[in-house]
Amino acid sequence: MKRILIVKLTSLGDMVFTQPLVADLQRAFPGVKIDWIADSYCADVPRWNPNIERVISAPLRGFKKSRNWAGLRAIFSALRELRREKYDAVLDVHGVYKSAIVTFLARTRNRYGYPVAELGESGARFAYNHVFQPFVEEDCARQRMRRAVSRALGYELTRDMDYGLEMPADTPAPAAKGPYAMLFHATSSEEKKWPVADWISVGSAISARGLRVLVPWGNDAERKEAETIAASVPNAEVMPRLSITGVAQMVGKASLVVGMDTGFVHIADALRRPTVILFTTTSRHLYGVDAPGRVVSLGGGGVVPRRDQVLAAIDEVLGVQPPVTSPN
């Protein structure tokens, strides 16, 4: 194998989950060059990985909203860039129509994708002439993907997941004011959220542990909620709106990250920051991470984490010893 293309277009968390695949492929095929194609809005993530040779980005989500000529031209430009190279293998680890179309258009004789039962959109199957073996149910989402590719290309997996991410050095100004924690309260849907009152309680407890509390946001509704949380938490600040890279740089220097099952929280894990991940409706088995002393996942599958569980997890990842109780 001399050159491989990874097709993973979105989303932020999934882009992070896919990064260990790069290290796997380079261990299996020394000297291989790896390219990646992604939607423009989250293409920064593979750009943080110095082991990726070329990142091709196309404004797919932006064009869906705008439907303008500029977006269409940018997409065609990305496709021309895609076809500049010939690949020994193209790995569609996304599994929907748009990723299948990209896979089909790439210059290769070997197009890999998931079996129909495991595709996000079953019609994507047309693009593949090699099909990954079915998932191992016991595996988490990241391990399922790694195992699928390793079986298809014939190499053994290591136990460790090497994300390989390196943040740009120019860290945003809010990081310079002393140690801080970040609370990622926002989610993609209301049903996944954790109550604001719980965020205030936990934020206050973090502040009492001597950390500044920074509350990020991405849209107007999230900003209003961030303001509500920060107004009731001592020593808390609403963060300025930053780019994806700017927020990730802040995450990379945080003393603690607490948040819902979202992309930036998984970036915190990939950057090996002390992290507590909260699940409500989504699957903790598939998307959770547990690394004793550094990352704790709570809740999931309809079970909502309690405040006391979150505080205990925070103490664990911060290395705070629980109080010793005397026997009666």
From TrEMBL:
It holds the Pfam family Glyco_transf_9. One of its GO terms (cellular component) is plasma membrane. GO terms for biological process: lipopolysaccharide core region biosynthetic process. It comes from the Bacteria. Signal peptide: none annotated. Coiled coil: none annotated. CDD domains: GT9_LPS_heptosyltransferase. The keyword Transcription does not apply. Its EC number is 2.4.99.23. GO terms for molecular function: ADP-heptose-lipopolysaccharide heptosyltransferase activity. Gene3D superfamilies: Glycogen Phosphorylase B. It is found in: Cell inner membrane. Pathway: Bacterial outer membrane biogenesis; LPS core biosynthesis. Keywords: Cell inner membrane, Cell membrane, Glycosyltransferase, Lipopolysaccharide biosynthesis, Membrane, Transferase. It catalyses: an alpha-Kdo-(2->4)-alpha-Kdo-(2->6)-lipid A + ADP-L-glycero-beta-D-manno-heptose = an L-alpha-D-Hep-(1->5)-[alpha-Kdo-(2->4)]-alpha-Kdo-(2->6)-lipid A + ADP + H(+). InterPro entries: Glyco_trans_9, LipoPS_heptosylTferase-I, LPS_LOS_Heptosyltrfase. Its main location: membrane. It is a peripheral membrane protein. Belongs to the glycosyltransferase 9 family. This is Lipopolysaccharide heptosyltransferase 1. It comes from Cupriavidus necator (strain ATCC 17699 / DSM 428 / KCTC 22496 / NCIMB 10442 / H16 / Stanier 337). The lineage of its organism: Bacteria, Pseudomonadati, Pseudomonadota, Betaproteobacteria, Burkholderiales.
